[in-house]
Design brief:
This protein is of the alpha+beta class and 179 residues long. The chain has a domain of 115 residues: 3-Layer(aba) Sandwich (Aminopeptidase), CATH 3.40.630.30. Helices cover 34% and strands 27% of the residues. It is built from six helices and seven strands; from the N terminus they run βαααβββαβαββα. Strands 1-2-3-4-5-7-6 form a seven-stranded mixed beta sheet, sandwiched between helices. The protein starts with 11 loop residues before the first strand and ends with a helix. 26% of the residues are buried.
Length: 179
């Protein structure tokens, strides 16, 4: 699903079809795979993947850009449950030269704003490896709180356990008002 964004966002923009080859290249990076798993299957072709993304009402994906507007990563709301008003969020800075510069935290803040204000969701959650303190700090800066510890399964099986974190609209809006 695509969402039209306004100029108020500095770090995220609508994902474009021409971004897909870059995302696919990042998906093959072993360091990124260890942290986030894979987005693409070996048999995915760019056109089919893009067409599926555009039609899928349970997913919304944004590109993350640096100050020059260059694509450096992506953030995705997935498993969107419209009636329950919740979604999972996943973020990845694919350009390693942009790690540790605050881009991910800023992009995550903007994606949470989109989730709560434009999509009217009530809860956004994520799963993060417990041995990824950089990501956990970023999530906590945005306002995510740990709610559970999970055993890693699926694409992350065999790696560190996961921490389930969430942020709710009721918790987020007062934080924004205080800022």
């Amino acid at each position: 699903m695509l969402l039209s964004l306004t100029d108020e966002f500095r770090r995220i923009r609508c994902l474009r079809h021409e971004d897909v080859p870059v995302l696919m290249a990042w998906d093959d990076d072993p360091d990124l795979f260890q942290l986030t798993g894979k987005k693409f299957r070996r048999d995915d072709n760019q056109k089919d993947w893009w067409n599926h993304l555009v039609r899928d009402r349970s997913r919304l994906m944004f590109g993350i850009v640096n100050d020059g507007g260059r694509l450096i990563g992506d953030v995705e709301l997935l498993q969107i449950l419209w009636r329950a008003g919740e979604a999972e969020i996943r973020i990845s800075i694919g350009d390693k030269s942009c790690w540790n510069r605050g881009y991910g935290t800023q992009a995550l803040q903007e994606a949470v704003v989109a989730a709560f204000h434009f999509l009217s969701l009530h809860r956004v959650y994520l799963r993060v490896r417990v041995d990824n303190p950089r990501a956990i700090r970023s999530y906590e800066k945005v306002g995510f709180r740990a709610v559970a510890r999970l055993q890693a399964t699926g694409r992350l099986a065999g790696y560190a356990d996961l921490r389930l974190m969430e942020i709710t609209r009721a918790h987020y809006l007062p934080m924004v008002a205080r800022a």
